[in-house]
Design goal:
Distance between the termini: 62 Å
Shape: elongated
Helix content: over 70%
Structural class: mainly alpha
Largest sheet: 2 strands, antiparallel
Number of helices: 12
Order of helices and strands: HHHHEEHHHHHHHH
Radius of gyration: 21 Å
C-alpha cells in the first residue's frame, strides 16, 4: 500500500491558467503516471531522472522512464539536455498541493523519504569513488550504481549537487537528521577537487547547525565544521572560517578523534597563515 486514497478531492485550480492546464494535463494521463508526477513533485527537487522518479513512486526505473516521457508529452515536465527533467515552478506547486489530498500524509512522506535515500545512496557512491582513500568519505553502499573511477565520481556529484543541497534541507525538515548530515558530508570531494564552494555552502551551514543541535561533540559534527571552515576559507571569509575550524577542533577533541583534531588544527594554521600573507 502506498497511502493512495481513491477517489479524493483535489484543490481547485480556480481561474489560474497554469494550474488549470496542469489539472487538465493530469486528467489526460494514465492514473499511475499522474501519481508518479505528484509524488515526484514533492520535495522541490531542482531536477529529476528516471531512478529518482522511480524512488518517489516506488516503481521500476524503466517504468518510471516511460511515465516521464508521457508527462513530457502533455507538457507537465520539461526535458533537460542531460537526460533529466524538471517541473516549471507553478506546475510543481500544483502537483505537490494535490499530492496530499490524493495520496495522504503517510504516502507523501514515504515518497520523499525514498528519494532522500536514493540521493544519499548515489552521493555516497560518488563521494567514495571520487576520494577512494580518504577517511573523510564513507564506504560505498553495498547496493546502488557504482561509479567507474575518481573522475566519474566527481562528475556524478557535480551533476547532482543541486539536488543534494536541496536534500540536506528537506531531510532536516523531515527530521531525517542522519541523512541530512551524511548528505552534506558527501559533498566534500566537490569542494576539495572541483571548487564548488558557493554551491555547497548553504548545505554545510545548515548541516553544521543541525549537527550542533542533534549530534554535539561527535566526529560527524567535527567533520562538518571542518568542511564548513574549508569552504569559508576558500571563499575568503577568514573570520567565519577560523570560528568553524575552532569548532571542528573542539568537536573532534571531545569525540576523542585524534586524527580529526590534528587535521582541524592544521586547517586553523593554514587559515592563519593565509591571513598573515
Amino acid at each position: 500500500m502506498d497511502g493512495t486514497r481513491q477517489p479524493a478531492p483535489e484543490p481547485p485550480a480556480g481561474d489560474h491558467p497554469v494550474r488549470e492546464a496542469t489539472r487538465s494535463a493530469c486528467d489526460r494521463l494514465p492514473p499511475e503516471t499522474a501519481r508518479l508526477c505528484r509524488l515526484t513533485a514533492l520535495g522541490g527537487w531542482p531536477s529529476i531522472d528516471a531512478p529518482l522518479a522511480a524512488a518517489a513512486a516506488g516503481v521500476d526505473p524503466a517504468e518510471a522512464a516511460r511515465m516521464l516521457a508521457e508527462a513530457v508529452d502533455v507538457q507537465l515536465l520539461e526535458p533537460l539536455p542531460d537526460g533529466r527533467h524538471r517541473f516549471r515552478p507553478e506546475i510543481r506547486r500544483y502537483l505537490a498541493d494535490t499530492a496530499g489530498p490524493v495520496h495522504g500524509i503517510a504516502g507523501c512522506s514515504a515518497a520523499v523519504t525514498r528519494v532522500l535515500d536514493a540521493l544519499l545512496n548515489r552521493a555516497l557512491h560518488a563521494a567514495h569513488a571520487a576520494l577512494p582513500q580518504s577517511w573523510r568519505t564513507e564506504p560505498a553502499p553495498e547496493s546502488g550504481v557504482v561509479c567507474r573511477d575518481e573522475a566519474d565520481g566527481v562528475a556524478v556529484l557535480a551533476a547532482e549537487v543541486r539536488n543534494v543541497v536541496r536534500a540536506v534541507s528537506v531531510a532536516e525538515e523531515y527530521q531525517h537528521i542522519d541523512t541530512a548530515l551524511r548528505l552534506a558530508r558527501a559533498l566534500w570531494p566537490l569542494q576539495l577537487k572541483a571548487g564548488y564552494w558557493d554551491d555547497v555552502l548553504p548545505a554545510l551551514r545548515l548541516a553544521a547547525r543541525c549537527a550542533d543541535e542533534h549530534r554535539p561533540d561527535s566526529r560527524m559534527t567535527g567533520a562538518l565544521h571542518f568542511q564548513l571552515a574549508h569552504c569559508l576559507g576558500e571563499l575568503g571569509r577568514e573570520e567565519e572560517a577560523d570560528r568553524a575550524a575552532g569548532a571542528a577542533v573542539a568537536c573532534e577533541r571531545a569525540a576523542g578523534h585524534t586524527r580529526g583534531e590534528a587535521s582541524s588544527v592544521e586547517l586553523q594554521g593554514l587559515l592563519s597563515m593565509r591571513r598573515w600573507l
